[in-house]
Design a protein that fits this description.
This protein has one domain. 77% of the residues lie in helices and 1% in strands. The chain has 21 helices and two strands. β1 and β2 form a beta hairpin. α7 runs antiparallel to α10, α13 packs antiparallel against α14 and α15 packs antiparallel against α17.
Length: 480
Amino acid sequence: MTETSFAQFLPALPEIYLVGAICALLMFDVFFGLKKPTRTASVALLLLLGGAVATLISADFGHRQVLFSGMYIADDLATLLKLASFLFVAIALFYSGEFLGRRKLQQGEYYVLVFTALLGVLVLTSAGSLLMVYIGVELLSLSLYALVAFDRENGVAAEAAMKYFVLGAIASGIMLYGMSLLYGLSGTLSLAGLATAFSGPNSLGLILGLAFLVVAVAFKFGAVPFHMWVPDVYQGAPTSVSLLVASVPKIASFAVAYRLLAEGLGEVSGTWTQMLSVLAVLSLLFGNLIAIAQTNLRRMLAYSAISNVGFILLGFVTGTGDGYEAALYFTLVYVMVVLGTFGAILLASREGFEADEIADYKGLSARDPSLAFMVAVLMFSTAGIPPFVGFWAKLRIIESLVNVGHLWLSIIAVVMSVIGAFYYLRIVWVMYFDPPGDLPRGQPRLALRFVLGLNAAAALGLGLFPDVLLNVCQTVLHRG
């Protein structure tokens, strides 16, 4: 291979590395992991670390490259999202290790599916054409369908997977139809070409194409009224899979929205921002109100996710760089916090006890003070209470709305934040002020507690120094 060709493929090193890692992991499991599945889990974590290193090696900070006939974009945003994806998947697998072993799900196929889902995320972060967007979406979606149904003895999980698959297939068809309309009108699959082709007045075909694409993006986010799969998957899937579905795919959803709408269709943002504003308000309203009535913690987190998706969409509604930065900031913060929340559920669970009912956490401060404190920190952050990082994430979204004159949307966001704080703080009340139940005390699990403690500390530390992450988000979008 010549030096020129090597330089051409270097920006795509994370994806190339991950494809090789999938093959290596599969072969390792066949020869060394069948008798001792924990070996495969350890190798998977090492491979994810290698993926982060490969991402840093391939990065060319401050520069943007468009490769492979415009199909692949290498910029600072892609680098940040890939690093975050490798890190968050590693944390998710670390949290899930004991749970998978207890449920006899710690199989090589599980980790291969996780890696293929991650590959879909990486493809989406660097997608430069409609074709790459679709390939990334399908890689991620098909892997998640299989993961949701991975526990074959769980009928509820199979039902959730079937519902997810059917609705996901419909959403994929809608996305393809919208893409075909845009291709027919513009004659190009390139997102850069779309930006040039649709710089004039909007036609009926363009509006229809945008409507179909917005529906598909809303489904991937889990926004109302395309949210029907979210609560069933969160509650029905194994907790380790719910953890994955709740976290890393949100990065992919942001990447789809940014590459497809902000970059590819930014010239017609006046049309799709109106559509997104309706979806954002509905998600905030229904997500928060229905979450109040939930008694299952995972189902409550599902409706909480829907409401938080409303905040991310509000960032895109602004149609400005500040709004996109706020949406990116909110996405990273939300994924970090929800990882810790599901990690706490996994830490509290044990054989025959899933710890996914709110009542299970009654008097947790008396039974397990350290776990109760970490959960409280995460709940305060998600509720948006200062000085935790969730407060700054929501404030940044509201500020970006005010700056472009969307006062009514900012007011709705504030009101919904107050309503949402109720069901988060209810968890804290249950842990600290309700009498303890008859449930057994928590087990030590020191390594898991240490990582969860770091997760909670990050929620507080990034809240005390919010500019650290916010400056990174501003840099990657301005330079990109």
